C-alpha cells in the first residue's frame, strides 16, 4: 500500500525549480511511476504530509500566516522588454533595389 494516494482533485499549481540529490531524484521518479502520477504531484503530497507532521512548524506557521515566497517569485511579476527588438539587416547583393520592400515573384 502506498503512503501517497493518487490524486482525487485538481490543485492550482505554480512553477518551482529546484535541485535534488541524484538518489532522491531517482527515488522521486520511481515513486511517481509506482503510483501512476507525475513527480510534481508526489512532491506536493510530500510537502503536505511530511511538513504537516512537524508540530513546531505548524505552530510557527499559525503565528506567521503571511506568504513566505520571495518577492521575485510571486505571481504577477512579468518580464517586460526594456530594449527595442533588434532585427538583422537584409544583405545587399549589390543591387540598388530595396529587398525588404520588393514584392514576391
Question: Mind sketching the topology for me?
Answer:
Blueprint: H1 22-35, H2 39-52, H3 55-63
Helix pairs in contact: 1-2
Can you offer a commentary on this structure?
With 105 residues, the protein is an all-alpha fold. The chain has a domain at 37-65. It has 3 helices and no strands. It has helices spanning 22-35, 39-52, 55-63. The chain is globular, with a radius of gyration of 26 Å.
Offer a few descriptive terms.
disordered C terminus; mainly alpha; 0% strand; 105 residues
Give me the secondary-structure category.
mainly alpha
Return the average pLDDT rounded to an integer. 76
Number of DSSP helical runs? 3
Give the oligomer, counting copies of the same chain as homo and different chains as hetero: single chain
**Percent of residues in helical segments?**
25-40%
What composes the largest sheet? none
* Unreliable sequence segments: 77-81, 95-103
- Alpha-carbon distance between the two ends: 69 Å
| Tertiary shape | globular
Q: Compute the gyration radius: what is it? A: 26 Å
Strand fraction equals under 5%
Number of strands: 0
The string of secondary-structure elements, in order, is: HHH
Amino acid at each position: 500500500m502506498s503512503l501517497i494516494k493518487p490524486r482525487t482533485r485538481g490543485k492550482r499549481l505554480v512553477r518551482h525549480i529546484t535541485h535534488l540529490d541524484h538518489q532522491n531524484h531517482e527515488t522521486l521518479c520511481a515513486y511517481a511511476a509506482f503510483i501512476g502520477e507525475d513527480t510534481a504531484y508526489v512532491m506536493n503530497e510530500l510537502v503536505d504530509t511530511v511538513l504537516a507532521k512537524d508540530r513546531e512548524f505548524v505552530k510557527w506557521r499559525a503565528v506567521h500566516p503571511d506568504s513566505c515566497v520571495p518577492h521575485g517569485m510571486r505571481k504577477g511579476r512579468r518580464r517586460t522588454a526594456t530594449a527595442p527588438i533588434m532585427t538583422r539587416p537584409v544583405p545587399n547583393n549589390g543591387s540598388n533595389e530595396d529587398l525588404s520592400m520588393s514584392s514576391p515573384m
